[in-house]
Amino acid sequence: CGQCAAVCPVGAITERNYIQEVWDVLDDPEKYVVVQTAPAIRSALGEAFGLEPGTPVTGKMVAALKELGFDGVFDTNFTADLTIMEEGSELLSRLTKVLRDGGQADLPQFTSCCPAWINFAEHYYPELLKNLSTCKSPQQMFGAVAKTYYAEKIGVAPENMVVISVMPCTAKKFESQREELTDSGYADVDYVLTTRELARMVNQSGIVFSLLEDQKMDSPFPESSGAADIFANTGGVMEAAVRTAYKIVTGRNLPTDKMHLKNIMDLEGIKEASLKIEDPVKEWSFLDGAELNVMVIHSLANVRKVLKEKDISKYHFIEVMACPGGCISGGGQPRFTDNNIRQKRIQAILTEDEGKEIRNSCENPFIQQIYAEYLKQPLGERSHHLLHTEYFEKSPVE
Ligand code: SF4
Q: Which of 396, 388, 381 is nearest to 133 (CA)?
């Protein structure tokens, strides 16, 4: 994307096209090919077929993917919920070390689901790497659980499973090739397509998108919470994490009228919010009355500005997304994007969230199931192995 191209010194700007590779694996009877679709693409894919910006097309997108021949059609939203379980727990663990035990922890914690931001930090702000959440992005968490938990469940050898992602993002292509993201024993994700490339495949196959009947995602990852939907928007990861952290600490959901943190999803490049913790459960009583201070930044030029001009020590959690408005305007989305279109896509995502019965990641029954059956607990041994990663200092690029 333009934003990535301006700042990303590695492969994120090289938009390698894997359409032929994906057709080849779909034609290979030995391969079991699954696809995951990111939260942001469903509010923009319709634009490639002449629909108004912001028209949600989740059901038609699933139908198109099934027609294309994928063996399993899944939602990266499921692992967005998983990311929140892990990232929210990581934040609470850092807060516990400092506020209850009087020890040291690297705060503020920064989000880690935007690979362009990770590249940028590795090259230009290595002193912040210890502050980055160790959580893999939802794309990479999906690949890791697909080739372990899911492959085992359906009796497919992981070497025969191929994981394709459809992302709004060109930087995700580079991310999937990071050599440390192979904890399943194989590349967690094999090929990444952008929203535009999926539209091209639909057209190549002769499918008439507008005539498709809505279909649902497949089990065992069929449902996600509203919190996962909003990952697509600037401020969404933060808001999703706050919803789950609040529930863990107080035992209560945030009231519906407080679910959206004030102004955190508008198109300002740097935003702040705080939330007072009141009446926590006994285990978290040390947080009674504490203010959780958060910041949301989009566009990497704004990261430089914040780090140059602000004291970030008062914040507990900072979200960074490279693209203006977040993933809804990633470099792989239908062209062209302006603030009017961004606003429509953001609103489409908020409507999805608000229409869901479950709006908190920790209440998604399928998330509870994967922990009960396989992962056991957030930050546990298996979660740590499959869902977390590390970052490396790299030379700045001239
Ligand atoms: Fe990719 Fe989203 Fe980051 Fe843009 S904001 S580079 S689309 S992950």
A: 388
Per the annotation, the verdict on 66 as an active-site residue is: no
Q: Distance between CA atoms of 275 and 285, rounded to whole angstroms?
A: 16
- ipTM, interface predicted TM-score of the complex: 0.99
- Specify the pTM: 0.93
pLDDT over 90, % of the chain: 81
Answer whether 327's CB lies under 8 Å from 190's CB.
Answer: no
- CATH code, 227: 3.40.50.1780
Confidence at residue 77, expressed as pLDDT on a 0 to 100 scale = 93
- 114 C-beta closer than 6 A to ligand 1: yes
With respect to residue 318, please indicate whether it lies within any of the assigned structural domains: yes
| CA separation for the pair 335, 70 (Å, rounded) | 26
Centre of ligand 1 from the C-alpha of residue 372, in Å: 31
CB distance 4 to ligand 1 below 6 Å: yes
DSSP 3-state assignment of 90? helix
> Is residue 396 in some structural domain?
no
Pair 118, 8: CB distance under 8 Å: no
Q: What CA–CA distance (Å, rounded) separates 24 from 21?
A: 5
